[in-house]
Every structure is written in structure tokens, then in C-alpha cells.
Amino acid sequence: MSRVRDRTEDFKEAVRVAALSHGYTEAQLAALMSSFIIRKPSPKSPFTNAAIKTLESIRELERFIVKHRRDYVDLHRTTERERDNIEHEVGVFVKACKEQIDILKNRIHEDEKSGSAKTWLGTRDESSRLDLIAHQHGVVLILSERLHSVTAQFDRLRSMRFQDAINRAMPRKKIQKKPEIKPAEPSKSNLVLKSDVSNIGDQEVSTAPIRVQEQLLDDETRALQVELTSLLDAVQETETKMMEMSALNHLMSTHVLQQAQQIQYLYDQAVEATNNVERGNKELSQAIQRNSSSRTFLLLFFFVLTFSVLFLDWYNN
């Protein structure tokens, strides 16, 4: 192995000489030389800026869910309308994040088809371009998984809300039946006993309790109708929410399938990148061996040449 020499100072000196030859002032020269110490950050690509913006949107969604978690679950803190508004806001957030992720996917596919994606150093090398595309697919996959984890948290909160609504609607029917049925039976028995004991032929006295009983039955029927109507509305609302949840679950399953395909694609790209790295290492080792062997050959050549010249000089003398 040959000894490695640091040529950084030589490079700085060459840059300084070239700057002076181009007429740089002292201030410009000082700024140029300071750039070797404090490097300016490289400009971010549009894909990186869009990915950072999408990540910020997902974090904002997560903060919103954490902030309104107790308001959404606790029945005594907010009304149904306020909880519906929270759910609507979360849906808008999720839709916006999903659209941003789809834009990133479409941009990757366009760059992949056109072959115009810039590599890390701005070169056009094919292997570097494939590595960059694989990296972008990984970024999109991470964003999709992050969004899925956040939406899964809100799905658990929404299932708790639906379960509470069902638990509130079902026992209320049993509780309201008991106080209405019990008073009706004793009134009926009292009327029967009274009719049996008196045994009077007066029709007005016997029909009055029957009318009271019919009125009680009508009131009970109306109360049951109102209760059934409210229960039906709650069931319809729950059914609508469950349909929305099933649609979201179907959407998430589709995304999971797409993510599985992306993972397979990333695996293939990673294998190809690994092969490229191994091939590059082999070429580097071969170049180092050639350099070492050529240097040894040159040393031997000059050594033999020197002795040949000395021998010829001695022979001539």
C-alpha cells in the first residue's frame, strides 16, 4: 500500500493563486477561503422539500389528535356536534396528507420513466440514479407508514365513541319500560276487582277506567315510538360511520399492498446497489494492486538502468 498524502493545503494555495490572478479583492479572497472551513449547505431538491412538508403535516395531524383526544372520547366535555367537527378536521388532514404522498409517488414514477432524476452529486451515472430512486421510494414508504400509524390511533378513538353510543342506546330501552308497565297492571287489577265487587250495571262507571287504561297504553306506545325513532337514527348514524370506517380500512389495505410492492422494489434496488458497491470495491482493490505493481516495476527498471549505465561506464574506462 502506498502512503497517502494530504493535498488539501496545496489545493487551498492553488485556489488562492487562481483567485488573485482573477483580480479578487481581499474581502472576496477571505470569504472564499472561509468557505473551506464553514461550508454552505447544499440546496435541497424539490422532492426533499415536499417530503419535509408532508412530514410536518403528519406531525401536525398527530398533535391535533393528541390535543383533542379527551374531548373526543369523554362524553361530558363536548357535544356530538363538536365531536363530529373534530372527526371532520381529522378527515381533512388525512386526505391532504394522502394527496401529498400521492404527488411524491407520481413525481418518482415520472423521474424513473424519463431518467431525469439528479443524483447525489449532480452526475448522470445510472447506478447513482437508481440509488436515488430507491432512496425516494424509501422516503415515501416511511411517510405512508407514519400516516397509517397516526390514523390507526384515531380509528381506535372512533371505535370507542361508537361503542359508547351503542351502550347508551341499548340500556335506555330496558330502563324506560319498567316504570311504565308496572303502574298499568295495578290499575287494571283494581278496575277488575272494582267491577267484580260492585257488579253495578252503570256503563259510565265501567267505561271510565277503560278509557284511562287506553290513554296510558297510547302514551306508552308514543313513548316507545319516540324511543325507537331516536334509536333508529342512532343506528343509521352508526351504520354510516361504520361504512366510512370500512372504506378507510379498504383504502389502508390497498396502501399496505402498494407498500409491500414498494418494499419488494426497494429490496431489489438494495441488492443491485450492494452488487454495485462490491464491484466498485473490487475495481478499487485491483487499481491499488496495479498501482503497487507498476511502482515496483518502475523501481526495478530504474535500478537496473542505473547499474547498466555504471557498468557501461566502467567497461569503457
3D architecture notes:
- This protein is mainly α and 317 residues long.
- The protein has a domain of 40 residues.
- The protein has 7 helices and no strands.
- It is elongated, with a radius of gyration of 42 Å.
- The two termini are 42 Å apart.
- About 8% of the residues have low confidence.
Number of strands: 0
Give the fraction of residues assigned to helices: over 70%
How would a crystallographer describe the biggest sheet? none
Shape estimate: elongated
> Which structural category do the helix and sheet elements fall into?
mainly alpha
What's the average pLDDT? 77
How much strand? under 5%
The N- and C-terminal alpha carbons lie at a distance of 42 Å
Q: Work out the helix count.
A: 7
Return Rg in Å.
42 Å
Q: From N to C, what is the helix and strand string?
A: HHHHHHH
Low-confidence stretches: 177-202
